[in-house]
Structures are given as C-alpha cells and as structure tokens.
Amino acid sequence: SLSGDVEASDKIEYELPEPEELYAEKDIYYNYLSGIETEETDTLGIRRVTAVCLNNNYSASRFQSGTSEADVIFEIPMDYNVTTLLALYYHPNGIAKIGPVRSAVPAAVTVAEGYDAYLLHNGTIGGASSYLDEYKTDHLDSENDSAYDCFFSDTAIGSVVSYAYSSARITKSLIMLNNEGSHFITDPIYRTPFAFNDDFTTPIGNSAKRVRVFFGGFQPYFLYNENTGLYERYQHGGPHNDLNTGEILSFENVIVMYADNEYKNNHLAYNIEGFGSGLYASGGKYVNITWSKAS
After folding, report:
1. Among 237, 232, 235, 236, which Cα is nearest to 248's?
2. Count of CB atoms within 10 A of residue 142's CB?
3. Per-residue DSSP letters for 198-267?
4. How far apart are CA 209 and CA 65, in angstroms?
5. 262-289 pLDDT tens trace
6. Per-residue b/e over 162-182, b at no fewer than 16 CB within 10 Å?
7. End-to-end CA distance of the chain
8. For 64-106, what is each residue's pLDDT tens digit?
9. For the whole model, what pTM was predicted?
C-alpha cells in the first residue's frame, strides 16, 4: 500500500541504451548496478556480479550482515509469511561478512542468472536445484562446496544456524571457479541492467511517503526520510539494520513487481519471465510501471 492516491496511471517506458552509449566518457567509470562513479576500471560491466541468498526470517534477520553495502536487494516471497533476500554486489570489497546465508529458491536463481552473477547460497528448496542445472549457473553452496573456503559458521550469534563469508574469501573462491573453467567477466550478451539519470529526478507522480508491501502476514514497509531523500526499511516490528554497520537499510529507489505465483514443492514459485505491472517509488513520489523479462 502507498500513502497518497493509489490510482496513479503514469507509465514509464524506455529502451535501454547500449553500454557504449552509457559510458562514452572513457575516463569515468561506473558501478553498473548503482550508476555511481567508481575507481574500478570497468566501463562496460566486465566484472561479474556476486549474488547472495540471505535468510530473512525473524530469528535470522536480526543477524543480517553486509546488507547495507549491497548495490541492489531483491525480496522474494517463500510462502505467505516468509521472504528471502537476494543481495547483489558489484564487488564485495571490504565487507567483513555477509549473511546469514539462505537456501536458493527458483526465483533467486532466475534473477541471478539474469545478471550473469555468481550465486552464493546454503542449499536449495522449491526445486531450485533443477534451475541451477538448467541454467548451468556458476554457484557456491555452503552445504557442498567447503573446499572453496568461502563460508564459515558464526558461533557468536548463538543457536541460530548461520553461514557468512568475508570479501577476501569470496574473491579467492571466485578465482578458483574461474581457474576451473568459469568466466570471471560478464558475458557480452548481458546488457547493462539499468539506465540512470545524470542527476536525481523525482518521478512525476503521487505521494508515497510510506510504501508497505504485503506478503501475507509479513508486511515490511519503507518510510521516506525527507532529510536524506532515502526510503528507510522496517520489518519484524523495528528498523531493518545491518549488524556489520548498525545502519538502517536505506534506498533511493523502491520497485514493487507484481508476478503470478503458484505453490510448487511446498513453496511459492513466481513467474518472473514475460511481463507484468508494478510500482516505482523515489523522492517521496510513485508511479505505475510495467516490467518485462525475456526467457
């Protein structure tokens, strides 16, 4: 639900430019997930994204780490009261740990594959293993890939079963995958995923000071902070904080995608290929949007 008029009819339609058009100035480099300038010499998205499945149930979410440093976060329902997070990192440099790690669900595999990302997870549920096989996804599973030394059990959080990893271990593990035949740079067939404005632009829409998303009994929400111009996230009765930094998760852009779903293998399965409707909120305003994704 959105505060303000929910009958907004504005549509956003555009064609994504080719990467060469986005990054014509070769002396300026960008993080292609966020559009922010970076010192990394990566103009056309040559480095592959790292995607991490994160546990978001009540017990585990209190110990979430590395979330505030993700470039993009997808929230995917697993049933009507529980979601999992898929955090995307252009490069997880300097992050002490990322976790707790969660099982991969089919939608997480599909999203990760759409970014040509390495996928890090703790087992699979809902038939996700067949998706990994079908897409031939490069992935590391904490249940089966201990040889990569990418995961560790964080005993400091007590009884909660949790695996986390440091950026140094992730980099080492990805290099090992590359040496075994994986590719370390983004496949050229993958386009730059987002088109960014040069300057911040508020959508011409209706008021959206509060954005609430309904996942059955679980209803996280975002409150717009007028001082920072960011949406701050709340769930499970309080602010959604990163244990590493103590910071509340804050976003300049919030996108809600509506998709068909059905129960498969005792979990919700979402069809995120084809097209659908959604909402885009930024700068305290929102508009209706359409989304599409090729198979």
Report:
1. 232
2. 23
3. SS----SSEE-SEEE--BTTB--EEEEETTTTEEEEEETTEE-B-TTT-PBPEES-EEEE---EEEETTE
4. 27
5. 887 777 778 888 889 999 999 999 999 9
6. bbbbbbebbeebbebbeeeee
7. 30
8. 999 999 999 999 988 768 899 999 998 887 788 899 999 999 9
9. 0.86
